[in-house]
Amino acid sequence: DVLVEMPQVGKPLPDGWVSFEEEFLVFWVCNTSHAAYNMYTCPMARMNDGLFHVLIVRSSCSRLRLLQMLLKLDSGGHIDCDVCEVIDCVAYQFEPLSNVSYNVLDGELLE
């Protein structure tokens, strides 16, 4: 098991952390293989693997490419789409860049 000390929000990140500061259409963190019985969100996830799998789609993705990717969620095929990036990590911290970003947690808007 890896013990990670989480930095406080707004404080500098510790050495070894990677930071991205850009707009995303999708920032989906998974630690299980399925988000629902018919949504194979993260095929590489294994029970007790100790990882978060961060699925990212950058804002440069077209609506058509995003739709094509989302239609493959039931089979896990979205992982093979070039617009979907997967980053494995043991900890993460998400901070919106502005007060007008739309964030959803389990289907509920975060304000």
Strand content: 15-25%
* Count of DSSP strands: 5
Mean pLDDT over the full residue set: 87
Radius of gyration, whole Å = 15 Å
Euclidean distance between termini CA atoms: 34 Å
- Residue share in helices? under 10%
- Briefly note the structural class of the backbone: mainly beta
Which runs of at least 5 residues are low in confidence (pLDDT < 50)? Answer: none
| Overall shape | globular
Please provide the ordered H/E string of secondary-structure elements. EEHEEE
Number of helices: 1
> Biggest sheet, in brief?
3 strands, antiparallel
The spatial strand order of the largest sheet comes to 1-2-3
Write the topology of this structure.
Blueprint (H helix, E strand, L loop, with lengths): L23 E7 L21 E7 L4 H8 L14 E5 L13 E3 L2 E3 L1
Antiparallel strand pairs: 1-2, 2-3, 4-5
What does this 3D model show about the protein?
The chain is globular, with a radius of gyration of 15 Å. The strands form two sheets. It has a three-stranded antiparallel sheet, with no helix packed on it. Strands 4-5 form a two-stranded antiparallel ribbon. The longest helix is centred in the middle third of the chain and has 8 residues, at 63-70. It is built from one helix and five strands, in the order ββαβββ. 7% of the residues lie in helices and 23% in strands. With 111 residues, the protein is mainly β. A hairpin with a 2-residue loop joins strand 4 and strand 5.
